[in-house]
Amino acid sequence: MDVVKAVETYITKLVSTPSAMKVLLLDTHTTPIVSLASTQSTLLSHQVYLTDRIDNKKRDRMSHMKCVCFLQPSEDSLDALSAELREPKYGEYYLYFSSILSKPAIERLADVDEFEVVREVQEYFADYAPLLPCLFSLNHTPTSEKPLYGSSPNIWDSLALERSVQGITAVLLSLKKKPVIRYEKTSGMAKKLASEVQHRIQAESTLFDFRLTQVAPLLLILDRRNDPVTPLLSQWTYQAMVHELLGIHNGRVNLSMVPDIRPELSEITLTTTTDPFFQAHYLATFGDLGTSLKNYVQSYQSRSLAQSPSSINSIFDMKRFVEEYPEFRKLGGNVSKHVALVGELSRLVDRDRLLDVGEVEQGLATSSGSDFKNVQAVVNNPVVPAWNKLRVVVLYALRYQKTQTSNIAALINLLLSNGVSREEARLVYVFLNVAGSDQRQDDLFSTESLLAKGRSALKGLKGVENVYTQHTPHLSQTLENLFKGRLKDTNYPFLDGTGTNMGLQRPQDIIIFMIGGTTYEEGRTVALLNQEAGNSLTGTRILLGGTCVHNSSSYVEMIRAAAEQFPASVYEPPPESATTAPSLNLNLGGVNTTEDVKVKTRTGALLTLISACIILAFTTMEFFDYRRVGVDTSIVVDRSRGQKLSVLLNVTFPHVPCYLLSLDVMDISGEQQRDISHNILKKRITQTGVDMPGQRGGDLRNEIDKLAERRASGYCGSCYGGQEPESGCCNSCEEVRQAYTDKGWTFGNPDGIEQCVEEGWSDKLKDQADEGCNASGRIRVNKVIGSIQISPGRSYQAGSRTFQDLVPYLRDDGNPHDFSHTIHEFVFLADDEYNPNKRKIGEDMKLRMGIADNPLDGVEAKTTKPTYMYQYFLKVVSTQFRMLEGKVINTHQYSSTQFERDLTKFNEGENKQGVFTQHGVAGSPGAYFNFEISPILVVHSETRQSFAHFLTSTCAIVGGVLTVAALLDSILFATGRKLRKGVDGNVKLM
Known about the structure:
Layout: H1 3-16, E1 22-26, H2 30-37, H3 40-45, E2 48-53, E3 62-71, H4 75-86, E4 90-97, H5 103-112, E5 118-123, E6 129-132, E7 135-137, H6 158-175, E8 180-183, H7 188-203, E9 218-223, H8 238-245, E10 252-254, E11 267-269, H9 276-281, H10 286-306, H11 315-351, H12 354-365, H13 372-380, H14 386-399, H15 405-416, H16 422-425, H17 427-435, H18 450-462, H19 474-483, E12 509-515, E13 518-519, H20 520-534, E14 541-546, E15 549-550, H21 552-563, H22 595-598, H23 602-627, E16 630-637, E17 644-653, E18 661-667, E19 672-673, E20 680-685, H24 699-710, H25 733-743, H26 754-759, H27 761-768, E21 772-782, E22 786-792, E23 795-798, E24 801-804, H28 807-810, E25 821-829, H29 836-849, E26 859-861, E27 868-882, E28 888-902, E29 907-910, E30 916-918, E31 926-943, H30 947-989
Parallel strand pairs: 1-2, 1-3, 3-4, 4-5, 7-14, 8-9, 9-12, 12-14, 13-15, 27-31
Antiparallel strand pairs: 6-7, 10-11, 16-31, 17-21, 17-25, 18-19, 18-22, 20-21, 22-31, 23-24, 25-26, 27-28, 29-30
């Protein structure tokens, strides 16, 4: 982002066409732009033999010449161009404008081009002055005639706003950047400018149709009022020092006032593009500059000896002398220029005692501070100019505005007695009212911060490189926060949410615009940061610009001119000023502003009582809020591994007997639990839901054990072709049934099996055929995706598939079976809930949060068809309660979605909406609970406000109520006094 190259490219393009002898016409705005970006020799190389101003009425007519016009599309320039085209002095005109040309302006030019001499109209976006590759200016130094501010420090002058929008737009277009925009929140001017620039970008969307980058460029709009210190300081680096003491205007320095200056040095050019010594040392400190200049002079002396007549002894020496003489003469002129310039700087430093003044200034501008006596000494010194005395006092007032009001008042009185006029001294109040601590967004000094004092002490132990360059501009801290992602959106918001999540990304291109003007010290900071970025891998590029480039004189003059447009109160002492502060408002008499505070009134007493009641009420509410325990909810990733879940269930099946009911668990890990009986209780119930009297699930087993005791030892029953167990024997009907299941056979005829006949299996099954079953208990499952299946008949595996023995369930024995059921309880438990105390706390917290109910509790499903399948899809979410006393309870919640279907219907046809539905044949009767584990953990944490928060809120309540009450009392007192004066005046007239 080199603005010098960008503008230089534009200038080269516009003077290259046409390829013939030509005249270059400029206006007051584009003349300095061309002079900064190009040289006379460059223009001559492109056949530009005459450069003139468009408003010069005395130009000669030269019809054989072509004319190139480079103008700003302002009203004055368009008027001058219209007059030129009505009476053209040249054969052809090529019109180039420095910013966007409006459609009405184009139509206006077309109307006045009666002779059709205009050959080309283009926009070359060079509507700014490129001072350095990383620094540009809009050349708008505010004055009374061309103000920056409107009627207050937060309001733009309309012309200044339009000029700034045009300049920023030109910068963006010349660099081909479409940025996101951030601005200083407390600055109304910054927000207004950001909105106008964004509106201009949207209105000219075709011009801003650039290639997108991974991270969008950033336009950061700042306000000079947030850092009034930097432009007030004496400068001690080469470029900044020349601008402070002599002034640099569009790359030129006027030395005509320097004693005994040679005529050819009365005005010099000082730019980095044409001066190699200045390019190498414009950032150097004043101390280093002396050494560099000495080496420069010695180098010139050595070359002078090489060019002396005594050194020319051959034809080769003569040829070398002729070739190098122009460069040698240029070097000699450059050496003379810098010697004269540095000599004048040294003279001014000695004359104005700037070393003493600068040391005090640096103390005031940095965290180290400066003693009141040192400032007094500067003000009392008769050799120090009144201007420097005023600057020091303004710096002291800005730093200690809230803490040393009496000293500020004493210093203002001291100024008045040491040659500073009242008109100048009142600027101290203007600075405090315009750019004081109440108007600044950021803290420049941190005078009361313990951390700042610690840093200052540490810096004092280490020492500093140069006592006169201790100060770093506030812009440096802003950029550091931006680079580290600490530039808060609350203080520097993105415009209308255009930079969502951009605060977390480091932009590669940063364009900073300073409303109210920037400084060369800030330009030096940006240049050094760019040098560091060029040597690193990050490669962040920074460009700084402003409405102008200030020195202390132009900055104070801007504030002085702006104050004339502001309300008269800007000249009054700020509210926190000491009573000894002199009244310097020349338009007001001495007014006792504290009279309303000293007078006791009934209204004041009433407001005091009301305020006390309000404070008591609000403080009581704040205390209850402080004691109340709240719950904060957050969501994090569940990082638990290898855990298990407990499922507590209680389900009744009124039309399925217990001997047919099988409970299986399968999960995605491949683990299968078949026909679970451990921790599961199956109770036989009647069709009405009443427990069978005197029946337990173990009765049949007890009788089998008795039968085994009666059999002879060594008895080995046949498995009737089923899958034999390891013992090779099936000594009970249940073992034969299991062997059949393992073989994949159905167990349909127990009457043909010896063991079943002896045990009376068929009779018992017939007795239970019309019964129901209640299954309850607790099962353990892996914390992965799985399924709990309650189905008729035992399950068995054939190959990679699982099947159920449905023959007994579907046999027509006169007792219809179906899977109607009622879910009394279905809960997922964590291991913490095995502890009764923790489970009680967890249940209380769930009840408090309103999540105590389980989705499946109390669910009823009814059907009359035996081949009916019920599916429940459960989403299990881990939940954690963190109590105020430090206890942590883990539990679970779940959500449920139900789906049911008749397995005899594979094709349901089209519904009312014309949607065709078809099911696969896979499926078995039963109730299937398919659960899935969510990867998130919901954390509910008990919280309570800290005592510090309670104390701060209480102080805010007291201060706020008293402030409002004081304001009301002041208004009522002033109104009553005016009414009384009016009544007294009427009485006197009568």
